[in-house]
Write a structure and sequence with these properties.
Radius of gyration: 21 Å
Structural class: alpha/beta
Oligomer: single chain
Strand content: 25-35%
Number of strands: 22
Mean pLDDT: 93
Shape: globular
Number of helices: 10
Low-confidence stretches: 1-14
């Protein structure tokens, strides 16, 4: 067996010149242009992941968000062609403190700043990300703009703040159809096909159908606008299960996925939802949703599975949550429901389970391509639901 030597590539000259990060409350952070030069707008959020920046950048759930990395040193392993979670970078902007001067990894093909520039993603480096994160924790996630090059030359930061405040807020945004596939596609089972699942793409990550395929599931990925007839048509007699993916935006605005999920629940088809899919299940059951002050984003969030008592370290990316009672079982139009998982940091609902129908969901990412893998068992739980239904 032969192995190739690690490749080391020197970064090209980073985009030169000053850059400004301007928050909607008027606070300004100064740094250097990085990635593409220009201007960009979105919701400022922070991610606490120490690794996995490539998976973060390509997660469709970050659509219309400017991501601040709390880890100070970003880009050291470069960019490869194996780890993206989708075909493009979805973040609206990228904020780091100390970008790597060199990328060094045997899988590296390009530097991170090259990739950002090639895909037109405006970034800023040299920012005091600790101070920025503390500001967002205290004041909450808010609208932001990054400006570099001609966009910042001779411009009053106050005028830039006015432009930031003019962009739409995340609350009320219906975004899943903007990131979902437009045509259905199939991810074949690995090995023997045991089940067929219809996966509703609300912003699905590439690793998710792969995790199901590893368990003998043929996954039919459908657009966010799919009808229940299209869901039922993926297999003779209908699918063995239905999956609702992660995705961006405000669940309160996602009326079509809620109606589709209710149609699935009425037919008693085994159902599994993650992240946005958890919020959709909450709405389908009659619970409300609300916007978190600054959300959960990163790969180190502690969650307790209340059915087993086990504590998991999990990967999160959500700014909204389900408003459901933690202390009791609730009667819903589809039978009894309970909170199955809870965040140990702040008691946010992290999972729901129906007691009278085969349906459950979690608010986090069990596929966790960048790790951790504590929650991978949830795909096995989905398989068990389908096995029980078949029996």
């Amino acid at each position: 067996m032969t192995t190739s030597a690690p490749s080391e590539t020197k970064s090209p000259q980073t985009a030169s010149g000053p850059a400004l990060l301007v928050l909607e409350d008027g606070r300004v952070f100064r740094g250097r242009a990085w990635g593409a030069v220009g201007e960009t707008f979105g919701e400022a959020v922070f991610s606490t992941g120490m690794t996995g920046y490539q998976e973060t950048l390509t997660d469709p759930s970050y659509h219309r968000q400017v991501v601040v990395m709390t880890a100070p040193h970003i880009g050291n392993t470069g960019v490869n062609d194996e780890d993206p979670e989708s075909a493009r970078i979805w973040v609206a902007g990228f904020v780091v403190r100390d970008p790597a001067r060199r990328s060094s990894n045997w899988r590296s093909r390009r530097t991170l700043d090259e990739e950002l520039a090639a895909q037109g993603v405006v970034g800023i480096s040299g920012v005091d990300t600790r101070a920025l994160t503390r500001h967002l924790r205290e004041r909450g996630a808010m609208r932001v703009g990054i400006f570099s090059g001609p966009a910042v030359e001779g411009t009053d930061p106050g005028a830039l703040a006015d432009r930031v405040r003019a962009i739409p807020a995340m609350k009320g945004a219906d975004l899943s159809a903007e990131v979902a596939c437009t045509e259905p596609y199939v991810v074949p089972a690995i090995g023997e096909r045991r089940f067929t699942v219809a996966a509703v793409d609300l912003g699905i990550k590439g690793m998710t159908p792969r995790r199901m395929a590893e368990r003998g599931i043929e996954v039919h990925v459908l657009p966010a606008t799919a009808s229940v007839e299209q869901v039922l048509a993926v297999a003779p007699g209908g699918p063995d299960g239905v999956f609702f993916s992660n995705g961006p935006g405000d669940p309160a605005a996602a009326d079509h996925p809620v109606a589709l999920m209710r149609a699935v629940l009425e037919r008693r088809i085994p159902l599994f939802g993650i992240c946005f899919g958890n919020q959709i299940l909450g709405r389908a059951l009659g619970f409300g949703t609300y916007k978190l002050k600054y959300g959960h984003r990163g790969i180190n969030q502690p969650v307790q599975d209340r059915t087993t008592g086990k504590v998991e370290v999990t990967a999160h990316n959500h700014g909204f949550a389900v408003d459901a009672p933690l202390d009791r079982v609730t009667d819903t139009p589809f039978g009894r429901a309970e909170v199955s998982h809870v965040c140990l940091n702040d008691d946010v609902v992290e999972g729901l389970r129906l007691l009278d129908r085969p349906a459950f969901s979690v608010q986090y990412h069990p596929e966790a391509a960048a790790g951790p893998h504590d929650a991978a068992y949830l795909f096995d739980r989905f398989v068990s639901l389908m096995e029980a239904q078949r029996a």
